[in-house]
Specification:
Largest sheet: 6 strands, antiparallel
Number of helices: 13
Structural class: alpha+beta
Radius of gyration: 22 Å
Shape: elongated
Helix content: 25-40%
Order of helices and strands: HHHHHHHHHHEEEEHHEEEEEHE
Amino acid sequence: MKVFIRITALAAAMFLLAIVGLVAAVLVDDDADAAELSDGGGGLQGVPAEFRTWILKASEKCKHPELTPALLAAQLYQESKFKTSRADATSHAGAQGPAQFMPGTWATWGRDDDKNGEASPWDIGDAVMAQGRMMCSLLEQARNSGIAGDIRALALAGYNAGWGRVIEFGGVPPKSFAQGETYNYVQIILSTMSRFEGPGLLQVSGSGAGADALRKAATRLGTPYAYGGGGPSGPSTGFCDGTNGYLNGRCAASSTVGFDCSSLVQYAYWPELKLPRTADAQYGATSDRPVSRTNLKPGDLLFWAHGGSGFIYHVAIYAGDGNVLHAPRTGRHVEIAPLTSAMPQGDYVGATRP
């Protein structure tokens, strides 16, 4: 959060510049470039990997579709450029962490979302989820306020200056307020969202367990593959077993927060259907309900084994139109791929309907 009336050298300079110039300045000054950026997917790209899962989760939790992952990412970049250290992410007014919460506001919105024993504005998970909760609430207020205008702009203005200022001005505070800080804050975020917009979320029609599971799995597009990682509650670090989980000679799974193929499927169906953990066990639990390749429906499970028989080594979810959604292997991310090339065709065993 910002202070509600704050005049800084940057704000004064921004007030004198055109919005186009402001946007260009933000794009050029990219202090986040040194961080490892996540791949696209789930409607998000170009954010540090450690922020990605939390941004997607915060967006998913809000019932208002306007709170997209790209909006949250653009807001975080404007707030802190994804900085997390106390030296880099403490404002002169005392706002703290990557989402820049004042202590009093943090007391309202902060939770221990990352389950590390404390609710802290310095923890990425806690900060991003609190940002999402506050923005979701502000979107609700904006929608019900009767104030004309883009409810995203109204919510952003409320985050920056306080909802009372939005009511006072009957919309986004004008350039004359706080030397244009809130006005420019809103304009910059809305103008730079496209920078963070990745491949869109999978559009899934229909209802039922399969469609619901596919929709849930689609929110994890772009999440890294971690052998042995993930489960019903979401992604987690994995492990290496002497053969799997390695990348370029090192154990990547132990330091990667993500899913493997079967944990993604387990996550997608849980808790409505509590599938076992491994691909082989999932095939065993559903093989009494086989589905032909010509009768596949979204949410069906597809399985592969070496040589088309024996131990099942991979599972994917049918995504419709001849595609599957799956976590392919170490070094890759949850993705949508053609059924014909997702895995070796000779290894395809068949499909089941959970």
